[in-house]
Amino acid sequence: MTNITQVLTVFALAGGWAVHAIRLYRRLDRSRHDPLTGLWTRDGWTRQAERIIARRPRAAVLLADLDGFKPVNDVHGHPAGDAVLAAAGERLTAWCGAHGVAGRLGGDEFVAIVDDDARLDDRLADLADLLRQPVEHQGVTLTVGASIGAARLTALAEPTLPAALKAADQAMYRVKGRTRRGRRLQLAPALAALRSLPHRSRLAA
Questions:
Q1: How far apart, in whole angstroms, are the C-alpha atoms of residue 153 and residue 167?
Q2: Are residues 192 and 93 part of one domain?
Q3: pTM of the full predicted structure?
Q4: 15 with 66, same domain?
Q5: Beta bridge partners of 202
Q6: Residue 112 pairs with which residues in a beta bridge?
Q7: Residue 115 and residue 113: Cα distance in Å, rounded?
């Protein structure tokens, strides 16, 4: 009986530690997700992005900042602002698809990493249009825009996540303040060759 009791005690302890570990993992996972949008937080997104770059070095990083978001909060209140942020997160996630990862850095700034392809500039234009779509909240139509900057890792002298984020941030702030309802976006300077494409003019106009 003593041996059986000892075995049962060991199993009970192991089971207890397993439950405890699962709870800790769930708490950690929740801490890495933004409770409002469900997107990865900065730390969680960074971990995911680093993994993607390690597997698929041909990737592009983008930053998106919502234009006109502060007036939504000031005029309609924080619940309205939260509705806009939640909608932006949902739309960005859908735009990223199965092979991209979106995150919220804080406030009204979002980040994403996606596969690089020949249609990236068109896809970014589609994202800007998507984020400009109105959000209905308690009978009020809310509209914001988005300044978007993006960088291809393969076009950077240093193809790392920090370098891509810096290039995307610089590209975003070059157009921020010159936009109206987020109608513009820009790729990092290293992608200047793309301006020769026929459809490039409508993105950089």
A1: 10
A2: yes
A3: 0.74
A4: no
A5: none
A6: 62, 102
A7: 7
Q: What residues does 136 pair with on adjacent strands? A: 141
Where do runs of H (alpha helix) occur along the chain?
A: 2-31, 42-55, 69-76, 78-96, 120-132, 161-175, 201-204
HSE (CB half, 13 Å, CA atoms) of 144? 28
CB of 139 closer than 8 Å to CB of 51: no
The range of the structural domain enclosing residue 55 comes to 33-204
Tens digit of pLDDT for each residue in 167-191?
999 999 887 756 544 444 555 654 4
Residue 82: Cβ-neighbour burial (10 angstroms; 0-12, 13-18, 19+): middle
Task: For residues 52 and 143, state if they share a domain.
Answer: yes
| Percent of residues in the chain assigned helix, strand, coil, to nearest 5 | 55, 20, 25
CATH value at residue 118: 3.30.70.270
Q: By percentage, how much of the chain surpasses pLDDT 70?
A: 71
**Pair 51, 126 in one domain:** yes
Q: Write down the residue that tokens 């800790």 correspond to.
A: 24
Q: Parallel, antiparallel, or unpaired: how do β-strands 140-142 and 135-137 relate?
A: antiparallel
The tokens of 35 are what? 């409770």
Q: Are strands 145-152 and 185-187 parallel, antiparallel or unpaired?
A: parallel
DSSP string, 30-55: HHTB-TTT--B-HHHHHHHHHHHHHH
Closest CA relative to residue 72, chosen from 148, 124, 5, 145: 145
